[in-house]
Amino acid sequence: MTWYVRLWRLLTLAHGAGGKETEDLIKHLIVDSVPPKYWRVEGGTGLDALDDSALIPIARDKYIAVTIDSYTVKPIFFPGGNIGKLAASGTINDLLMVGAKPVAALDAIIAEEGFPTEQLKKIIDSYVSTLTSNDVAIIGGDFKVMPKGQVDGIVIASTGIGIVEGKPIDDREIKPGDKIIVTGYVGDHGAAILAAQQSIGVKFDVESDVKPLTSLMLPLLEKYRPYIHGAGDPTRGGIAMLVNDWAEKTKTVIVIEEEKIPIRPQVKEYAEMLGVDPLSLANEGAAVLAVQGDKAEEILEYIHSLGYKEASIIGQVYEAKDPRHVGRVLLRSVTGGVRILEPPSGEIVPRIC
Amino acid sequence: MPVLRAKWSGALILQQGGAELIKRLEEFLRRNEYARKIVKKIHELAPNAVEKTGQSPIKIMDFCGTHEYTITHFGLRSLMPPEIELVAGPGCPVCITPAYYVDVAIKLSLEGIRVFTFGDAYKLPGSGKRGKDIRSLEEARAAGGNVVVVYGILDAIRMAREDGKESVFFAVGFETTAPSTASPVVKGHVPRNLTIINVHRLTPPIMKYTFENHRDNPIRGVIAPGHVSTIVGARAWRFVVDDYGIPTVVAGFEPIDILLAILEILRQHVEGKPRLVNEYTRVVTWEGNVIAQRQISECCEVVDAAWRGIGFVPESGLAFREKYRAVDALHQYGIKELSPEEWKYDLPPGCKCAEVTLGLAKPTDCPHFMKTCTPGTPYGPCMVSSEGTCAVWARFGGGGLAEDIAKSLGIV
Asked: For residue A309, what are the contacts with CB-CB under 8 A and spacing of at least 6?
């Protein structure tokens, strides 16, 4: 019996939560359905890399970067943004994370019959202004309305196109000795959305961190491109998913120091109250970078100078000393003990007590 | 003295609120520096305690799922000397909820009755076969069943009142959760369209049962459940010392709380005097929450009750008293209560959840663990709740691998 029938007869929300189940589904159900020859364009990257964007070579050391994502969020307007800003930022960030300069975007919107046009206007305004203020053109799109009840409010799919000049950032190049840098507070977006969704009547003053990282990544790439071996925006699944993905891809061990991770106290508190790990909560305006070890401090300082004051070196990549250690992420807790940082799995649901 | 400092900080923490609280917690009850001092003392005392007890390693049981969470999440096992073994006990109410009641809840939800459940019980498998039957409320919802995840019965009451829909609340939990069910029932706050599947269970009886199962290699220390003790009071554990002579510490849920509890247990062994100590004085009193105790006994009577994979344990469950029959979902829908004669072994084939629950096996001893049983695809009940030992080990990599890797990299 195939894995999905054996384990899951029907899709559950866990399959879309961006954790282990999503990864399994993508690998087994989607990637495996495509003949390996068609996983990428000759000379580029694609399903073989499963990176933030795919690359198509156009000249020596020059690539087109392409990404697509669909966005659905409840509530559609949340503290710190809305689905339009989320889609635009996500599109831009996915391009930046492979070392591309974002140049153009296309969107496809499906809205529900009865959706207020005034809200639609606000969403589109956010989408457009986020892109144009980052110098990204909107070159096409699609718009459909579904009968009431057949889609919940609004769903946006957004494609981004960028240009890589020089070495693309390919996470498979992460190597032992590299340091892991996170560029901002962890878990703000996930916590803000969770707070807006859950009715537990606690005042919670955190907004989503949703924003394009252009002002960080373009100068950084300009100056340090060869030393940035990996980059990712830890959206669904959070940092925990991202670093596990890196360790697995590169067959290394990554060690994270909990003490060094920047998390807002209120996010930590809220996550603890709900029994969720802030490291599994989504970020929409922070990047995680793997940089050459001896350049890490210098790069960190430069990131601080760009206004990303919370940025911190949170860990290091090691060579696995035993086959059983390959692809594992170790976390040293604030108490000093060590544990495995597992990739998140399952749907985030409130616990009992 | 680290002991004094931790207690002092406890009082301090209670005066704070919100984000400040977490900062204080971090500073006083989690940080490395205190931990290191206590750990050093534990390492010093451990060989002595081994000599006194004649057991190596000394088996200390943490009875609460949240203790196991703290131990694994903060990597406390990696800080222990080889003379100490920390074993998880039956501290997860979701894990021991008999499959029978899950099946009932699934059936009701598929019949269109709205079932309210806690997040962890939402994924709890019943007796159905994987890939064939609808096994959990999660799968029932995907199949069109009416299932709503709530934080507590108050949400269920509010929603049931608002729309008047026929609803059922799936009430699982130990003494910690029982008062939240009992209180609205005795106060008459439960609307007529909401009934309750009552699967509340009691912890002291299962603790006795666990000791009996460890006779061959006895438990030499108990970290008693802090949450449960807020309700039942520290006095509920007197029998552990009186009847079994086991050092017992009611402990809080921060790493320093647990490290202090371990140190205290070792001290008692070295002195040769088992005692009951309440480390969690910032929350737990000797008598406990008397109002909650009264509400529970007004609402429910103590009955022999089934534990998943284990069977009936004497006087270990709560059932609605006759006068509150109207809120009893099983009674209302004419569904039979589970009886000792009809109880069948209710774990899926190969699942070691019962042994794990009783501390007789480790999750890593189970052939399904992290192979066919993961947090995303739970096969047995201990993988479901965030307090289940298997789920804790799965989420935070329990089982010794972390210690192994840390050693190989030379970072401990």
From this structure: none
Report d(CA B330, CA A346) in Å as an integer: 30
Secondary structure (3-state) at B147:
strand
Q: Does residue A156 sit in the same domain as residue A181?
A: no
**Cβ distance A197 to A75 under 8 Å?**
yes
Q: Which amino acid type is present at position B309?
A: G
For position A101, which CATH number holds?
3.30.1330.10
Instruction: Using CA coordinates, name the residue in chain A closest to B118.
Output: A352
- Quick check: is A95 in a domain? yes
* A227 and A99 assigned to the same domain: no
Instruction: Say whether A265 sits in a helix, a strand or coil.
Output: helix
- Do A159 and A75 lie in one domain? The reply is yes
Chain A to chain B, count of Cβ pairs less than 8 Å apart? 175
My answer on whether A121 and A259 are in the same domain is no
| Set of chain B residues whose Cβ sits within 8 Å of the Cβ of A334 | 26, 30-32, 74
pLDDT per position as a tens digit, B118-162: 988 998 999 999 888 999 999 999 899 999 999 899 999 999 999
Alpha carbons B366 and B382: distance in angstroms, whole number: 11
Residue A346 belongs to some domain of the structure: no
Shortest distance between the Cα of B81 and any Cα of chain A, in A, equals 13
User: Over the stretch B26-83, which tens digit does the pLDDT of each residue have?
Assistant: 778 888 788 999 999 999 999 999 999 999 999 999 999 999 999 999 999 999 999 9
Residue A76 lies inside a defined structural domain of this protein: yes
Q: Nearest C-alpha of chain B: how many angstroms from A222?
A: 34
Query: Is residue B272, in this structure, part of any structural domain at all?
Result: no
Q: Which residue range(s) make up the domain with A298? A: 171-340
Q: How far is the C-alpha of B77 from the C-alpha of A242, rounded, in Å?
A: 26
pLDDT digits (tens, 9 = 90+) for B309-340: 999 999 999 999 999 999 999 999 999 999 99
CA–CA dist B195, B116 (Å, integer): 10
pTM of the predicted model as reported, rounded to 2 decimal places? 0.84
CATH number of the domain that residue B116 is part of: 3.40.50.11740
Contact B117, B148 (CB under 8 A): yes
Shared-domain flag, residues A205 and A325: yes
Interface of B with A in 21-60 (CB under 8 A): 21-23, 26, 30-32, 35-36, 39
